[in-house]
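Continuing from the previous page...

OK, I double-checked the sequence for Response regulator transcription factor against my notes and this is the correct one:
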Amino acid sequence: MTTVLICDDDPIVREALGAYLEHEQDLEVVAMVETAEEALAQIETTRPEVVLMDLVLPGMDGIEATRLARGMQPAPAVLVLTTFGTEDHVRAALASGATGFLLKATSAPTLVAAVHAAAARAGTVITPELASRIAVDPAARSDREARATGAAREALDLTGRETEVLTLLCAAESNAGIADALSLSESTVKTHVSSLMTKLGCSSRLEIALRAFERGLAAPPQPTIPPPPE
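Thanks. Re-ran it with the corrected sequence; updated structure tokens here:
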């Protein structure tokens, strides 16, 4: 059973998120609060494995709350939530120690998958819409256009296997999923991920994905468009 704490100042959002997660038999919402201060107090009391943290809160904001939460022992994984998102927001969330960054418009299945990935400390947790938005950011675009994808890979000295691992990592695959797809052991995948962190100058899987999107090394995942009702 994975325990989750929800922090959002909108009661409708809190209830909706709680309902999505409580529907899953292996997820338990241990607290729902509206301020960062309440969240930090509840984290000490309930010790959730995953925290859904709103970016904009009354008083202390979600970025600072994330930083403090990640400094606790044991530290929960934190997924930052917002109704909008820019590259600056993602960078700030990463710097604070966030495991991922999700738009509040994220579908229930995507939210549940993100919580599971965060709890397992595996996979890249970022909504496809936000990844696409970052990939077409003007500042990032100018950087990508300065080098072709192949040239960028060559400059970074990525091996063929590292490129395969990078592509799957950017598609939100966990180490186990990458290992299965490439017929490798998980320990070998971890070695390749560590090498990618070094070559790309990153400290997390999420940062690897963002750097790859910016440099054109991997295509950002595309939003899933639900079929029209019959």
